[in-house]
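[Q] Does anyone have a clean C-alpha cell version of this?
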Amino acid sequence: MFKKICIYGAGAIGGWIGAGLAADGHAVNVVARGATLSALRQHGLRLREGQGADERERAFSVTATDQPAELGVQDLVVVAVKAPAMGEVARAIGPLIGPQTVVLTAMNGVPWWFLQGFGGALQGRVLESVDPGGAIARAVPAASVIGCVVHASCSVDEPGVIRHRSGRGLIVGEPAGGSTARVEALVALLQHAGFEVTLSEQIQKAIWYKLWGNMTVNPVCAMTGAPSDRVLDDELVRGFISAVMLEAREIGARIGIPIDQEPEDRHAVTRKLGSFRPSMLQDVEAGRAVEIDALVGSVRELGQLTGVATPFTDALLGLSRLHARVRSLYPA
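[A] Here you go.
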C-alpha cells in the first residue's frame, strides 16, 4: 500500500523516521533544501545511535530534492517540520498528494486539522492561530491526514545527520477516530520498521496530553535559558506553569478530551526525564523560528471558542511572543 514514501522535512524526527523506513528496505524520497539537501545527495541520510564506544552510524541512500514535482504523487508523505514552516510546505506539497495519498503529520502542538472530524460544536472550525485563512487546509485535504504523536528523543548533529537518543514511540490515529484499513496498514508498516506504534481511537487526546506538558515548559525554558529541572525547581515559576495547565485542562474537558491528572502529576513525569533543554530553547539558541502559535496561541484560541478564561495562557503567549519578536524569531 505504501510503495512511494516521502519525508517532507529531514530534521530530527523526519530524518529518524525516514532512516527507520530506509533501514527496513523501503525506497525513501526526501524533500529538503540548502545544506541538508546537499548532505543527503553527497552522503545519504545518516543515523547515529548509542554512545561512546557503542556509538554506530549508518547511512541510507535516499532520493533528495527541493522540487516536490520531481517526485510525483506519493503513497505516504511524512510531514515532520516545525509549525512555522507549514505555510511554505502548503505552497509546495501539492504535487505529492493524490486521491489515495496518506499524509502523516509528526509535529509538535495543535495541528491545523485538529477540529476536523472532532470537537463537538467546534467540529470543522479552522484555527486561525495555526492556519490563517485556511491555506494549509486547502493544500492538504483533511481526508488525507493521519495524525502522529512522537515519543522519542532525537536531534540533528549536522545537516543530514540524525542522532537518536531514546524512545521509539509513535501514536497514530485518524482525525475522525476509529480504525480504518489505511491506518492499520500504516501501523503495520511502521511496526515492521522497528517503531513502537500505538493506534489511538482519539488521536486528539494524545496530542492534547503531550501539549499539556510542553506548552509551558518549552516557552518558559526558551525565555529564561534554563533547562527543565531548574524551571520546575523554582516554586513561583512552577506555580505559574500549573495555572496555565489548569486552563488548558478545562478547555480540553469542554471539547471532549478530559485529563484526569493534576499539574503536579505531570511535573513528576517531566522530572523523570532528567535535566533537558526543550526544542524551543534549542531553536532560540540556534536562531530558528519558534513554534509559539502551535503550542500556546492555539490553546488561547480554543479558550476563546469554548468560553474558558485564559489569563495565565495569555500572559505566557504575550511574553514568549515578545521575547521571540525581539530576536526576529517570530513575525511582527
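[Q] Thanks! Anything notable?
[A] The radius of gyration is 19 Å.
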